[in-house]
């Protein structure tokens, strides 16, 4: 299985929480109460999301974070790249340059392309709608 970092997984959850709080500003404290993460770690994730223009922030007593674009224009790929960078499959150093080239052309680049296509097809809007739908179908005994 391809490794998607905990930071990227948390970033996607954070974006869903902010989207669920549409119309209000979401604070680090809001997310902290919902997730088992340190505030410092959350602040790092928020800083990367802000640096990549996925969220904006307002400082002060009534401050917090908002999503900067319509939810249907933000994809899972956008969020992961904002937190991890472009290369999802990574590089391996080796002395055998010919083998590296072959594997890069036949395996790693096609895999990267497939992952990018898949994650680019999943919008924040779809994730939020699926989450909301799953919560309304919960039955409690």
From TrEMBL:
Quote the InterPro entries the UniProt record gives: Tscrpt_reg_Rrf2 (IPR000944), WH-like_DNA-bd_sf (IPR036388), WH_DNA-bd_sf (IPR036390)
In its keyword annotation, does this UniProt entry include DNA-binding? yes
A Gene Ontology molecular function term of the record: DNA binding
Q: State the source organism's domain of life.
A: Bacteria
Q: Which UniProt keywords apply?
A: DNA-binding
**Gene Ontology CC, one term:** cytosol
One Pfam family here = Rrf2
Which PANTHER family would you find in this protein's record? Answer: HTH-TYPE TRANSCRIPTIONAL REGULATOR ISCR, WINGED HELIX-TURN-HELIX TRANSCRIPTIONAL REGULATOR, RRF2 FAMILY
Recorded protein name is: Rrf2 family transcriptional regulator
